[in-house]
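Running this now, will post back.
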Amino acid sequence: MEMDALSLSYEEWKTFVTDVLKEPRFRADQICGWVYAKKVFEASGMTNLSKSLRDKLTSESFIKTPIQVGEKKSKDGTRKFLWQMDDACRVESVLMNHGSHTTACVSSQAGCPLACTFCATGQAGYARNLTTSEILGQFLTMERRMGRDINNIVFMGMGEPLLNEENVLKSIRALSNEKMRNLGARHITISTSGIAPGIRDLADFEVPLRLSVSLHAPNDALRSRLMPINKRYPLSALVEAMKYYKNRTCERITIEYVMIDGVNDDPQLAFEMAALLDGLDVYVNIIPYNPPLAISQGAPVYARSSDAKIKEFCAALGGLSIEFEIRRERGADIAAACGQLAAMGRSSFIGSAHY
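Update: finished.
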């Protein structure tokens, strides 16, 4: 019998141990401890288990993790990893070092179907959703690779997490379960391009996750031009979902806003944003645009807003009593910054990865 044991929830582990392995239930705690706390993925290394149980685990189950085929390190300490899955799909994830803590930015899909015009991932195409195992595997393998725990996880890599909701939430249940990875809910963030029903599901989820919303434009005409998903979930639906999330969780929402020269950096748009988000407790992340390594044929060519334009836009936000921060750029020199991941096609790993 062959199965992907990393996809099991804690309850499924208990059932597997008792019903399939014919072992006491507490063995599930021991196995999960080895996998999630100690990052031991081979049954042979689980030394407090009997040899007969280790043999059964080897024959009955296996921990399947992505294969690391590339790694690049930025001058600021950011690391980008290239993973290959069983079917040869490749995705990228990023590990950011903030000094006192680390943050893993993981992918939820191989590519992205949303085709945002400013995002390298969206321009590279879409293959499929990642499995729960493939999502968890990125995080756990990075921890094993670095030899230490990672403090935070953000679902801000390749893909739209709320279009792979079932697998993403199952991975979060494993990460937050005290018998598994035991990562606190305040250390888990989901970033969405505005999948309104998914935001409502997050509001009702048993773990109070942090929410980040990629806005990038405060009116439907401009947002639909930048982000085609806005035609399906226009700003009215998105704002209602955000209000539902806020009322249910009392959590502050982060708004992501990429600054593109001459497109969405007019200070007047800051006033539109304030009106749109009136009544919501938000924090705005201002992101200087990061150009992709290559531009798809027919795709718009964008440029980063000047420092003066960004300063003027932020001054308008501040005058409207909207809290904001200009995001510190990390990993741009290795195409690991926001909007630059594109493992399926124009990846910075091509011809230059460290193996």
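The two ends are 33 Å apart (CA to CA). More later if anyone needs it.
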